[in-house]
Q: What sequence folds into this?
């Protein structure tokens, strides 16, 4: 998972032989799908298309069913021989996490490739619907997307009048990375009544300095469980930081908040609970 986070940061900066079946040969629903990012495998199962998944990326670990599926590498190192043996009729790739030249190479090999955008919460719901169209699961995908969206609508209504709190979300500690307002994590913070102190940055997942964090003086430090004890180790020396004065250091119970998957609906509850506690601590 740590490598997945690193690839996520890198992917945000990217902006964007055996005979293979031709793309034009696949006009109907895909029956043999390979996903090249962990969250895309999660979406397949969430919309009821898990049985059509025949291969996954190296770092796929949820749901448990993916652990029994063949691994074909990741966006930067694909096992072409194994991929060929799987005979997929659709490859799902992560728009922000796979270089354009790698996508082009797969298409040149004759694969049907669909690039899926998952930068925002709305993107994730759209991705569910799109993958549902591609796999013949349109109705169940629409229902899954509706459930996902409803969670955030309900949280937004609950926290509409909540006191705002300034939050620094830490993707990685060394080097120090965070998110801008377009990132789904920033959206979740906003849904819970918080404000991302780096929301104005132009990069999707920008690198920031300690000095910049101190200048913006967040009232709360928040990180995913993937960072462990490293998350806040470097901040203890800066006692003037508002988050330190209030004791507002929050490590979320798991790392689902950094993966653009349907499980963000559950992760959002943990984020909102952390913000609630941080508000109480500053009084």
A:
């Amino acid at each position: 998972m740590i490598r997945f986070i690193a690839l996520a940061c890198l992917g945000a900066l990217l902006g964007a032989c055996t005979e293979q079946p031709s793309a034009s040969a696949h006009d109907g629903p895909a029956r043999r799908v390979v996903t090249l990012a962990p969250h895309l495998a999660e979406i397949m199962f969430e919309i009821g298309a898990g049985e059509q998944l025949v291969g996954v990326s190296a770092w796929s670990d949820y749901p448990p069913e993916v652990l029994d599926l063949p691994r074909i590498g990741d966006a930067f190192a694909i096992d072409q021989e194994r991929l060929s043996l799987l005979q997929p009729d659709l490859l799902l790739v992560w728009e922000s996490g796979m270089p354009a030249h790698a996508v082009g190479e797969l298409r040149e090999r004759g694969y049907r490739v669909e690039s899926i955008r998952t930068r925002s919460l709305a993107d994730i719901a759209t991705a569910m619907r799109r993958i549902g169209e591609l796999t013949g699961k349109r109705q169940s995908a629409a229902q899954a997307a509706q459930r996902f969206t409803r969670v955030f609508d309900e949280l937004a209504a609950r926290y509409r009048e909540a006191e705002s709190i300034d939050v620094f979300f830490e993707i990685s500690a060394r080097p120090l990375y965070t998110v801008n307002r377009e990132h789904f994590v920033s959206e979740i913070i906003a849904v819970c009544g918080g404000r991302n102190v780096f929301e104005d940055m132009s990069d999707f997942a920008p690198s920031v300095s300690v000095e910049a964090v101190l200048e913006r003086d967040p009232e709360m430090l928040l990180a995913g469980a993937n960072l462990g004890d490293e998350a806040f180790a470097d901040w203890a020396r800066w006692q003037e930081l508002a988050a330190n004065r209030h004791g507002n250091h929050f490590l979320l119970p798991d790392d689902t908040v950094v993966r653009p998957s349907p499980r963000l609906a559950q992760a959002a509850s943990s984020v909102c609970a952390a913000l609630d506690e941080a508000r109480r601590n500053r009084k």
The longest strand covers residues 165-170. The mean pLDDT is 91. The chain has two domains: 2-151, 161-281. Strands lie at 33-35, 53-55, 73-74, 77-78, 90-94, 113-116, 165-170, 194-196, 220-223, 249-251.
